[in-house]
Amino acid sequence: MELQLENIGCSKDNMNSPIHNWYKFTAGFSYKFVDYLLSDLSQDSVVFEPFAGCGTTLVSAQKNGYYSVGNEGQEFMYDICRAKLNWTIHKEVVDQYISQIKNRVFSDFESYDISRENPLLIELYDDYNLKVLCIIRNYINSIADESYKLFFKLALSNVLHKTAIYPIAVPYISRSKRIINNGQPLEKFVSVCDKMTNDIVTQPAQYHQAHVFLHDSRKQNSLIETNSCSICITSPPYLNNLDYGEVSKVHSHFWGITQSWNDITTKVRSNLVTGATTHYKETDFDIERFTNSEFAKNNKEVMSDLLALYHRIKENAHGRSGKKSFHILMMHYFDDMYNVFHEIRRVLSPNSKAYLILGDSAPYGVYIPTTQILGEIATSTGFQNYSIYKIRTRGTKWRSLSNRHNIELSENILELS
Ligand SMILES: C[S@@+](CC[C@H](N)C(=O)[O-])C[C@H]1O[C@@H](n2cnc3c(N)ncnc32)[C@H](O)[C@@H]1O
């Protein structure tokens, strides 16, 4: 198999692969990496994915005939993931639903009132598009068969990207660019559904269906048995201030999961690894208390390095516009990942390996050897060893900008055994 190292950490490869390409996710990674690791495993192996996202690991496992299990903390991504794993969809049934959806759009269009929709949606879609999208959404919400409901939800979520006035998840709403050809929501929806049904036909008829849970991987998932998995393949959030609550904000609002910033904080961010400064209240953090946490006590050497970094980042924040509390973010991030490692270690059988795709960080110009620190932390949770394989250099594009650092960052694979 052709595996290009520099593509492992991004979703470029996935765009040419059926099902993997059903939903473009900013933070995805290459399915080829998963296929590569699976090619060495016995067929009775079970794969664990604690950060399922749009399901790259689980879809690959299912395509290759492996059992797999995973967690995803966000309801919207959880639905996307389940839709990609559900291949019991039949073209005739899809066509029947589509014809009813078309009828519903024609019958409800005149009277549908979009003024009650979320203000963000009203701002991001022109009236015609928003009306059609909402009528389709309401029809989908009324479908009793969960498999088809998820299938159509994914299709319409995909169309939300193609019909907005601006790109909505790159990773954030980008109001400085406009999407040309953002019309014809119904036609786009039908065409996405057609593509998806055609893709399903090309998949193996017999497969072990992956199981994904709406669950926060910092906590034990009692539905996944101890020692039940043979390998973990994942990509956790990076320590780079990417707010997954923001990335899926438009979709979460559209599907009624959230309605406001406060909802995103309480219903979305609260279930995720702390990866952005929007995830916590600065005033709730107390460094003294943190120094006495279970994480700190079990990671004394790491903790002394982290404290030095903490003070340097805090100092460097002075005089910077925005003054983000990256020093606090860093502490929360490693503490959260410590809990995640406990859960990975519990789920994996003895002698199994975990592979994590990760990036290093340099908030306010202070280099944090993130992958190495995570390797050290993993050894405090029961892993014996770790190795780091660099897959690419990143971050250099900021070199020419005076307000950015010029530290070379890398993306790596962390192997835990
Ligand atoms: C880097 S992405 C994973 C990408 C994914 N492997 C893929 O290819 O789509 C991180 C994902 O982890 C989820 N996540 C973050 N913290 C989580 C947690 N504590 N438990 C479960 N999922 C979490 C995010 O919602 C996001 O979908």
Total number of strands: 7
What fraction, in percent, of the residue positions are helical? Answer: 40-55%
Low-pLDDT runs of 5+ residues are 397-403
What's the mean pLDDT score? 94
Q: Work out the strand percent.
A: 5-15%
Distance between the termini: 24 Å
- Bound small-molecule species: S-adenosylmethionine
How would a textbook summarize the main sheet? 7 strands, mixed
Q: Which structural category fits the helices and strands?
A: alpha/beta
| H-E order | HEHEHHHHHHEEHHHHHHHEHEE
How many helices in DSSP terms?
16
Give the neighbour order of strands across the main sheet. Answer: 3-2-1-4-5-7-6
Q: Any idea what the radius of gyration is?
A: 22 Å
Shape: globular
Which quaternary structure do these chains form?
A: single chain
Overall description:
The chain has 417 residues and is an alpha/beta fold. It has a domain at 91-201. The protein has 16 helices and 7 strands. The protein has a 7-stranded mixed sheet. Helix 2 links the parallel strand 1 and strand 2 (67-72). Residues 397-403 have low confidence and may be disordered. Residues 25, 27-29, 51, 53-54, 56, 71-74, 77, 216-218, 234-235, 237, 244, 272-273 line the site of S-adenosylmethionine (SAM).
